[in-house]
Amino acid sequence: MGIEADVIGARELLAVYCADERLDYLCLKRRGIRGWTPAAALDGLPPYQSFPSGGLRALEELLGRIPPKKRRHLHIGVPRRHVFLRDMLLPPMSLEEALEAARAALPVSCHLPGQDIFVDVRLNRLRDKTVQAMVAYTPKKTVEGLLSVVEATGHGPSLRSLLPACLGWAAWLRVACRLRLGAVLCAEGQSATWIALDGTGRVHVVPGAGGEEGEDGQGLVPLILGNLGIEPEHMFSADDPFCRQAPFENTLMSAWPAPHENPASLAAAAAVSGFMDFCLDGREPRVRIVHPAKIAVPWMLALALTAWGLDAENQAKIEKFQRKIQRVTVETRDLEQQLEPLKKNVEEMKRAQTLLVGAAGFMDQRPKFYGFFNDLAERAPEGTWVTNVNYGDGQFVLQMVSPESLKTMEALRASPFVKEAQLRGAVTRRQDGKEAFQVLVELKK
Length: 445
What we know:
Layout: E1 12-18, E2 23-30, E3 36-38, E4 48-51, H1 56-65, E5 72-78, E6 84-90, H2 95-109, E7 117-125, E8 131-139, H3 140-152, E9 159-164, H4 168-176, E10 182-188, E11 191-197, E12 203-207, H5 220-227, E13 235-237, H6 241-244, H7 264-273, H8 292-309, H9 312-364, H10 366-379, E14 385-392, E15 395-402, H11 405-414, E16 418-429, E17 435-443
Parallel strand pairs: 1-5, 5-9, 10-13
Antiparallel strand pairs: 1-2, 2-3, 2-4, 6-8, 7-8, 10-11, 11-12, 14-15, 15-17, 16-17
Helix pairs in contact: 1-3, 4-7
């Protein structure tokens, strides 16, 4: 693995994770041979931050506050549900031939018409000389709004990657955790996906139990990962302590925020490693070529200046103090973890009080709820199901499956019990032809 060609000329890197329910960013600056470290992109903005609300408006506000720079590259991660992935294993051949083979297979491997999608291909030469071709594609309408925001804020020329953020776990395992094989479970809403590396260096995307693609249960996933040679001790959750931060000796990613707290770290990991960093913005798939002069000349100048200007003894003292600071940081983090159970007890008490209040309100309004669901059963199209119901703050969140989502929404809005009904998120079509969607319903007082 090497540094990706497009990152070589960058002095700064802005990674963003954009979802409907949250927005995260991470700003990095190159520190010579010491890799990339968090640094503020603008006065008033910290090096990284997470926002509880997302969507295009939040992305526009963030990018509007950060002025574009010629040598600052932009990398955006999106939820897995917005992107389809296809995996091909090709025999030993040149990367140019592998790219042509992957392109020729696109009409067969992609289930959507070519004119309706943005597609990109990443090639990964494995240890046995075979080539993995990972194809990612997304409907144009899914990302056109995001790309419009990037262009409108002046960051269009800086965009280098637009990828499903979960694939950044492959780079995080290889570069941050220094693992040759392993798997991480990343959850997004009600779906879950395992990102796995096998012993040959190949990346696998395995649907986890509970997701719409993985309804075979928890027992099947360990069997699949076991067949890839991945032992249980190398199967991690996203918030596992082993995956939270890069070790101190890994200067490339030191001091980055933990990916489960700030998923923008995953987009940044894919960017600085050049591993699975797709760019689904309409540009043609191509083989990434690094020109030797672009690497050799800057490095020769850097080495000459370093040999002339650095004092080895002072540098060693600085590094010694840095190690002491890192040890103190670890000890502080350990103390914070010891206090975490006490915080959880307080949070659980607050949560229990909230549940009691919600349960009392629910019991008081049961007759109205029964009337609403009976009325919905009469109005909704035949074959409509409510697969999950959540109630809180006087509102229902209904997870529904229906042959026609539009008619179902019309039926909800026509109900005499309903004050307002709003569609949340995107409508997805299942393999049986029905549409799955989520609705926020507020009943009349």
